[in-house]
Amino acid sequence: MNEIISVRGEMQRGELPPDQHPALVYLASLAPTGRRAMAGKLSKVAELTAGTRDFLGLDWARLRYQHVAAVRTKLVELGYAPATINATLHAIRGVARAAWGLELISSDDYQRIRDVRPVRGSRLLAGRAVTSGEIGALVEACLRDEGPAGIRDVALIGLMFAGALRRAEVSSLKLDSYRPETSELVVTGKGFAERAIYLDNGARDAIEDYIAVRGDEPGRLFCPVDKAGRMQVGVRLSDRAIYRMLKRRVRQAGVRDLTPHDLRRTCLSTLLSLTDMSTCMNHAGHRQITSTVRYDRRGEETKKAAAAMLHLPYRSVRHRDD
Prior knowledge:
The chain is mainly alpha-helical and 322 residues long. It has a three-stranded antiparallel sheet. It is globular, with a radius of gyration of 24 Å. The termini are far apart.
């Protein structure tokens, strides 16, 4: 990257207090669920421009249009997905906005940075759909665990699947987030935006059975279970612990590998085939319709059905002697 811009000479460590550091000010403006992802994007910028992932060591006050344009070009050359590149540009613009607010860069320089064009294009849908049989196998794997972790994990999987919750959203829930009289769950999502979803059928039964085991002590809804099988009521179950839980239950169930976000994807894709876009957006906690559209796999099913209607008069040699 240094052959494009000599960043080591232009963007060296700036010794600034945290409340004057534009990268830290920008990250502090984000919800906790977004800070880790955007910090990762800034680390990538530091790696490309200065050969280190220490984004706090860059002097962001020296950030200019040519730096951002060069980062965009390099990410394209490295084959990053358009969505990843655009998210990185969004993070850079966020730092630039903070630098402008702190009077570290001029309005003209900030506007030029904003003028760096996003990357057009798209990739195939990420992740995969989870079948009803796989969901059933996961539930059975959890229920074979007769300790409190078993019913807890059924409730966790139920919320990520039927509620389309992100694992960070599940981790942040408190006991009073669920209102049993209405089956309403109040979720705080990205940008501190609250939304209400309603649980029914097995998901509602699972969360209420779990709460009966957990007890009514205020605090975090989902709690760790220690090695002795005791529930640590009130202690937050981290989103990383939720990820590890699902990986463990996937192995126990003997199903193909999947992630917590695959459960969310499956929920939203299913809802898109059953209800309207506005309802799906509200259920997902999306502000932009383009965010919800990315979860729509109905087109893939249509393409599969079309392929089945196109008949080639050929029979595989493997089956001719059957």
